[in-house]
Write a structure and sequence with these properties.
The protein is α+β, with helices and mostly antiparallel strands. It has 13 helices and 33 strands. Strands 11-10-16-7-8-15-12-13 form an eight-stranded antiparallel β-sheet. It has a six-stranded mixed β-sheet with strand order 2-3-1-4-5-6, sandwiched between helices. Strands 21, 22, 23, 24, 25 and 26 form a six-stranded antiparallel β-sheet that branches. A hairpin with a 2-residue loop joins strand 27 and strand 28. The radius of gyration is 27 Å and the shape is globular. The N and C termini lie far apart (58 Å). It binds guanosine-5'-diphosphate and magnesium ion. Magnesium ion binds next to helix 1. It is found in: Cell membrane. It is a peripheral membrane protein. Its EC number is 3.6.5.n1. Belongs to the TRAFAC class translation factor GTPase superfamily. Classic translation factor GTPase family. LepA subfamily.
């Protein structure tokens, strides 16, 4: 295919501004998907994406479009997620593109991730085409949105395309703008092969599948290729594109995006960000990607200890598809063998756990999330601690440092008061308050990240009726008065329930947590005492009274089906229970701190 007729582009936007819906209309308009096969958010292929209505993984599809100039163009469209936890997916996708459609919801205007995504696109030198979406809504304000695009983002909105992705208005204009404004990819077909790996996953039939952008040269079945970072050589078995279903093709050439398989068995050998070259050639590698450091940590354990090996295999495979989480083996006195995992945020943590459970059929327990602290000891050593179970003895500690972020909150002005209160309550320090327009402003705070991890985002959304949005960057570590709180169940400390808290809030959190645990731990045949303690000092105590009767005693008289039903119900309820000593503790107990 002529290289000057290739267009590689992404759709970027704040969450819910209509990226996936616009992608649907483009698939339809170009005939890639017939209206009979069409379903909403076509490219959200994971069940989880469809249920939650959010995009988690970037997707690359190939389309052909006959433009007004009569020529046929090859489009490689990459749909991307919008949530802050998945920024790394966006940045990888953008590395494979020359342009981006920036979608802005005309009823919402510019929001935190709109701006964050624009910065990513600029870093990758992409041509940005502003698209104002949802113009069908009665609340849509096109002029105001244009003004925000110019004043907040600094892009000219004169030629912004007015679209209703829902009703299919303005789609042709979008496709023509892609042809006219986005440059064709550079690179040389005659040069030796260099391809950038920007995603990969494990397929039960093909082995490891690698999504690539060919920068120079070509790649075809039978070719011997080498992964630059490992030096391993493979023979390509299959080359293909998503159109939008997986389709085999003869080769991919410079400028094109597609997938390859090469009987790669070891999941770690196809690293995202690596460069693929010909087996013999000596060429310089492509720049690759910045490593994504996880910021939130939690333990993941199998409910049934026999599943440890299965969990290990599942984590290794999932990691290939999502290198933004990290893992290392962990043993807990309470929960047995498992993994300490690192994530980009709480949503990311939830998604990883859910994908492990669904895609690999596992039943898991996760512990309460923690950030990474730096602990300076009196002997001069400094430790990094992200697991409360590994907190050093308080007598040895000189100083504790905690991570801080610079949070930018975009909000309509009527919620300003409540949001300021929220930030102050979270020990935040106000740095800036700017009005973007007379109605909208951005509030900048420095806040301890551990406060944000707990429930900040949910509160932000509820205080602002969903209108405020958040973006943040890490700015470093600052001293904090932090202590470890232990939870004792019948006098036994449960390592997996301990947590790090701010001293000022320890009493409050301890009492609330003990009360919450009392709610979620089922009654047992014996009395259960729950205590929260700091060091040897007990700060809260709750008691769960013992069960008097066997549940079955209620169906005395022996209606067999009813008895069976009850037993099944009990079994059902047991699914996510982990036995600690003699007590069965449900998943909710481990995450109770998030609910305070
Ligand atoms: P994404 O998170 O950016 O991928 O957004 P989605 O494409 O999933 O859309 C979010 C919501 O906005 C969905 O409920 C869509 O039906 C709706 N939506 C998308 N485009 C339009 C539009 O042009 N008009 C209206 N009224 N709703 C839209
Ligand atoms: Mg989407």
């Amino acid at each position: 295919f002529p290289q000057e007729k290739i267009r590689n582009f992404s759709i970027i936007a704040h969450i819910d501004h209509g990226k996936s819906t616009l992608a649907d209309r483009i698939l339809e308009f170009t005939g890639a998907v017939s209206s009979r096969e069409m379903r909403d958010q076509y490219l959200d292929r994971l069940d989880l994406e469809r249920e939650r209505g959010i995009t988690i993984k970037a997707q690359a599809v190939r389309l052909y479009y006959q433009a007004e100039d009569g020529e046929v163009y090859q489009f490689n469209l990459i749909d991307t997620p919008g949530h802050v936890d998945f920024t790394y997916e966006v940045s990888r996708a953008l590395a494979a593109c020359e342009g981006a459609l920036l979608v802005v919801d005309a009823s919402q205007g510019v929001e935190a991730q709109t701006l964050a995504n624009v910065y990513l696109a600029l870093e990758n030198n992409l041509e940005i085409i502003p698209v104002i979406n949802k113009i069908d809504l009665p609340q849509a304000d096109v002029e105001k949105t244009k003004k925000e695009i110019e004043e907040v983002i600094g892009l000219s909105a004169e030629e912004a395309i007015l679209v209703s992705a829902k009703l299919g208005i303005g789609i042709k204009e979008v496709l023509e703008a892609i042809v006219k404004k986005i440059p064709s990819p550079g690179g040389f077909r005659e040069k030796p092969l260099r391809a950038l790996v920007f995603d990969s996953w494990y397929d039960p039939y093909l082995g490891v599948v690698v999504l690539i952008k060919v920068v120079d040269g070509k790649i075809y079945p039978g070719q011997k290729i080498r992964f630059y970072s490992t030096g391993k050589v493979y023979e390509v078995t299959k080359v293909g594109v998503f159109a939008p279903e997986a389709t085999s093709i003869d080769m991919l050439v410079a400028g094109e995006v597609g997938f390859i398989a090469a009987s790669i068995k070891e999941v770690r050998e196809a690293k995202i960000g690596d460069t693929i070259t010909e087996a013999q050639a000596q060429v310089a590698p492509l720049p690759g990607f910045k490593e994504q450091k996880p910021v939130v940590f939690a333990g993941i354990f199998p409910v049934d200890s026999d599943d440890f090996e299965d969990l290990k295999e599942a984590i290794e495979k999932l990691w290939l598809n999502d290198p933004a989480f990290s893992y290392e083996m962990e043993t807990s006195a309470a929960l047995g063998f498992g993994f300490r995992c690192g994530f980009q945020g709480l949503l990311h943590m939830e998604i990883v756990q859910e994908r492990l459970e669904r895609e690999y059929n596992l039943n898991l327990i996760s512990t309460s999330p923690s950030v990474k602290y730096k602990v300076r000891l009196k002997n001069g050593k400094e430790l990094e601690v992200e697991n409360p179970a590994k907190w050093p003895d308080p007598g040895l500690i000189e100083e504790v440092l905690e991570p801080y972020i610079r949070a930018e909150i975009y909000t309509p002005k009527e919620f300003l008061g409540q949001l300021i209160n929220l930030c102050e309550e979270k020990r935040g320090i106000q740095k800036e308050l700017k009005f973007l327009t007379p109605e909208r402003c951005v509030l900048v705070y420095e806040i301890s990240f551990s406060e944000v991890v707990l429930d900040f985002y949910d509160k932000l959304k509820s205080y602002s009726k969903g209108y405020a949005s958040l973006d943040y960057q890490f700015i470093g570590y600052k001293p904090g008065d932090l202590v470890k709180m232990d939870i004792l169940i019948n006098k036994q400390p449960v390592d997996a329930l301990s947590l790090i808290v701010h001293r000022d809030k320890a009493y409050y959190r301890g009492r609330e947590l003990a009360a919450k645990l009392k709610e979620v731990i089922p009654r047992q045949l014996f009395e259960v005492i729950i205590q929260a303690a700091i060091g040897s000092k007990i700060i809260a105590r709750e008691r769960i009274a013992p069960l008097r009767k066997d549940v079955l005693a209620k169906c005395y008289g022996g209606d067999v089906t009813r008895k069976k039903k009850l037993l099944e119900k009990q079994k059902e309820g047991k699914k996510r229970l982990k036995a600690i000593g003699q007590i069965e503790i449900p998943q909710e107990a481990f995450l109770a701190i998030l609910k305070i």
